[in-house]
Write a structure and sequence with these properties.
Two copies of one chain form a homodimer.
Chain A (H helix, E strand, L loop, with lengths): L2 H14 L2 H9 L3 H8 L4 H10 L2 H8 L4 H10 L2 H10 L2 H10 L2 H7 L5 H12 L15 E2 L5 H11 L8 E5 L5 E6 H6 L6 H4 L1 E2 L4 E2 L5 H9 L4 E5 L5 E6 H19 L23 H18 L1 H9 L1 H6 L2 H29 L8 H31 L1 H31 L9 H23 L5
Parallel strand pairs in A: 1-2, 5-6
Antiparallel strand pairs in A: 2-3, 3-4, 6-7
Helix pairs in contact in A: 1-2, 1-3, 1-4, 4-6, 5-7, 8-10, 14-15, 16-22, 17-22, 19-20, 19-21, 19-22, 20-21, 21-22
């Protein structure tokens, strides 16, 4: 069924108010396809369709909709519908929805929920954005170590409709401490009367609710987990994270770094990712303008340092205009080498390849690489130097190239560490920033070397 | 158990040749932790330990090891061990291992395998690198539409040990065409005698074996799939892709784009990702040098165009040395605006937010944004211009700023489209490349405007 067919069968269902037909549509359509069809329908129609759906389906589907559409549809709902929806929604998505509501709406909804739901929402909403607690769900089942495989399977079968996943279940003791994990596969393969404690994985790997969201990506990837348990500081099980949350986090984190490093995101706090553009196609011109102008204007004023440097060496430049030929080349090379180092370092810090204590080691390595790069590029530029300015100028340009490339590389490598050290996001060491620093210092290096080697008339 | 304890218990097992002890270790240790322990042990020890393991475990673990370690351990194995290992390994990892072997080794191993295994390896190895076929696995079970739930569960239970996952199983007809999918959850929740065809999802979403690997990320993410079926051009089921492969692909693709865009990767073919650095901590200095010097030297020669431009305007510069003050600022701003556009466009193309046919629409949008950016920056720079050079120079600098920022933005936005059009990777539109183009053209724009506005002595 393509989108057009889907929309027309949705219209049919709304007209005939046929609940039987709706179940058929839902069974063979993915939530994301429904969401895309909704985007081309009127809000009133979407609401009519959703209110005909079985609650089990509508509460699941609701989590797939964009925030704006969720709020619009909520507007059509009466108290009873909202209450039922909130009872059935997956707990992580329910907390997200609650978080985007106006305070007035929150105050109206909270009292109609049960005590347990209120507490769950408040608990999940209380986690700072961008810690694992804020994306975990509390819709999960737990098992006890003294249950047998058969009992466990029938228990899971009974509650499967209400929880996020039954494929990995966690085992807790009487204090709700995490003691083991059991996959549905191992439950199915086990003898029916064998005890969980005899075949569960003991001391499973777990995530802390207070850890930054990025942590879950590395753990789930390295350990090939489908679901990871989340515990508090006392090893009490408080939630789960599923692989699909992790795919979303991994992609969002990467986009965030791309945007920060190209100077298209102004967010500098370490775990703030609310500013990530998810679509440049849909983004308004004013949004894109605001995202980009910030760094660009800062860098205009940053570049005043380069101008001041050049002004200081006006006499040298007047005597040897040929030096100007090499200015873009030299400062550009420093910026390029610096951007390379910065990108490699930022990503290595983001993926956990290196951490703060590796700085000294990386500095030594970077120094060696930068020296090699500088020497190679000095050699390349010396020919251009001889051709355009003669031997003396070639010497000045080659020497400058070595020091500028080394300076750019070291700054590009060290700045992300420094930002990280001060709890800022290393990705703020954007290419534009590195380029501007290298420009200003490059000017000084170049004209200082020129002034000391060349014969400047007083 | 930390790494040190793990290594010491591995040493114990090797000494006592205790198979019972080994099963206990394997049950409570994750493959990735064993792999890390192996990295600190001698190859002979690792081999001794692996040969004591039950085949089921060693064949699974083998896929987690690095290529180099796999080959080293293979060297210790006799024909029988290799044959057994190849029989039990997951099919995608077996094909990967086969691909990295020397031809001599391949020719020695192929004849000792069964006909079916030979064919499977050859089929999986025949897919081009970076299409979905090359990362899919053929270890999966299928069901028939006329089986009932109980039969299906006992069938899956029997073969669960040999296949990659039983959580989503695909239903095929007599021609092996994909007709449905069934989750283990729905099997467990269904009445034991209900038929698969009555509760399976009909026409499930599927991937094509010949599609690029990036495609699987978007499909698995949008549809929240655990496992996606892979079909050939006739809708015949040929393999499956699991969520963990997708997490790996998503992360590798993002790293590849980071490295290309900062000019630290020389690969330009669209789906080539063999050149991705996975760790800068472990990478040799010579590797990092080679990755980085390529673009840097190209750009040195690319910058000859900027130098030539400057040389052409030597008289203008001699007459107004103050123009030089603004040179780094103007060309830097163009490069910054261009890098921003390029990053946003490359990522939007990579994530499927936009595609080739959106170029005209994006161009219109970019023109508006670039005009706004240029005007704002011209305004900012006009103050610096008046202060450092007077009103005339300020006019020249402000006008140049508008055109240079517009030029940089349009090139940054269009180059990724152009590369994509010619089947090259859009990420090759790296910041260094954009910067160099903008430098050269920026010089021409700036000094042409200066020459036409200012009074140049003949």
């Amino acid at each position: 069924m393509n989108k057009k067919e889907l929309i027309s069968s949705i219209h049919n269902v709304i007209e005939n108010r046929s609940k039987k037909e709706i179940v058929k549509i839902l069974h063979n359509t993915y939530p994301v396809d429904l969401k895309e069809a909704f985007e081309e329908m009127k809000p009133q129609e979407v609401f009519n369709f959703i209110s005909l759906m079985p609650l089990k389906n509508s509460s699941e589907l609701f989590g797939y909709l964009d925030e704006q559409m969720q709020l619009t549809i909520l507007d059509f709902m009466d108290r009873t519908m909202i209450k039922e929806l909130f009872e059935k929604m997956p707990s992580d998505e329910r907390a997200d929805l609650f978080n985007i509501m106006s305070e007035t709406l929150q105050d109206r909804i909270l009292p109609i929920l049960t005590k347990a739901e209120q507490e769950d929402i408040i608990k999940l909403s209380s986690y700072e954005e961008n810690v694992i607690g804020s994306i975990m769900t509390s819709n999960y089942a737990t098992l006890k170590a003294n249950m047998n495989a058969l009992e466990s399977i029938s228990y899971l079968r009974k509650i499967a409709g209400d929880i996020e996943s039954i494929y990995e279940t966690f085992v807790i003791n009487e204090n709700r401490e995490l003691v083991g994990s059991v996959s549905l596969k191992s439950l199915i393969m086990a003898e029916p009367d064998s005890l969980i404690e005899d075949f569960m994985r003991k001391n499973p790997i777990s995530l802390k609710a207070s850890d930054p969201v990025e942590f879950c990506v590395k753990v789930i990837q390295d350990y090939d987990l489908l679901i990871a348990p989340v515990v508090d500081e006392n090893n009490i099980l408080v939630g789960i994270i599923t692989y699909d949350d992790v795919i979303d986090v991994a992609i969002e984190e990467a986009e965030e770094d791309f945007q920060k490093m190209s100077g298209t995101s102004v967010e500098v706090s370490k775990h703030g990712n609310t500013g990530v553009l998810t679509s440049i196609k849909d983004a308004a011109i004013s949004t894109l303008y605001k995202k980009r102008i910030y760094w660009l204007v800062i860098l205009v004023f940053g570049n005043i340092f380069s101008s001041a440097g050049i002004a200081y060496f006006e006499d040298t430049i007047s005597a040897y205009i040929a030096l100007v030929f090499f200015l873009p080349l030299l400062i550009g090379s420093g910026g390029n080498a610096g951007s390379q180092s910065a990108t490699l370092t930022v990503r290595a810090l983001a993926t956990g390849d290196i951490n703060l204590k590796d700085w000294a080691g990386m500095l030594g390595k970077e120094l060696m690489i930068a020296t090699l790069l500088g020497l190679t590029m000095a050699f390349a530029v010396s020919f251009v130097g001889i051709f355009r300015g003669g031997y003396e100028i070639a010497l000045v340009v080659s020497l400058s190239m070595i020091f500028i490339v080394m300076f750019g590389s070291i700054v590009g490598m060290s700045l992300p560490f420094l930002l990280s050290k001060f709890k800022l996001d290393p990705a703020s060491a954007s290419s534009p920033l590195i380029t501007s620093i290298t420009d200003a210092v490059g000017v000084l290096i170049f004209f200082s070397i020129a002034t000391s080697i060349l014969d400047i008339p007083a």
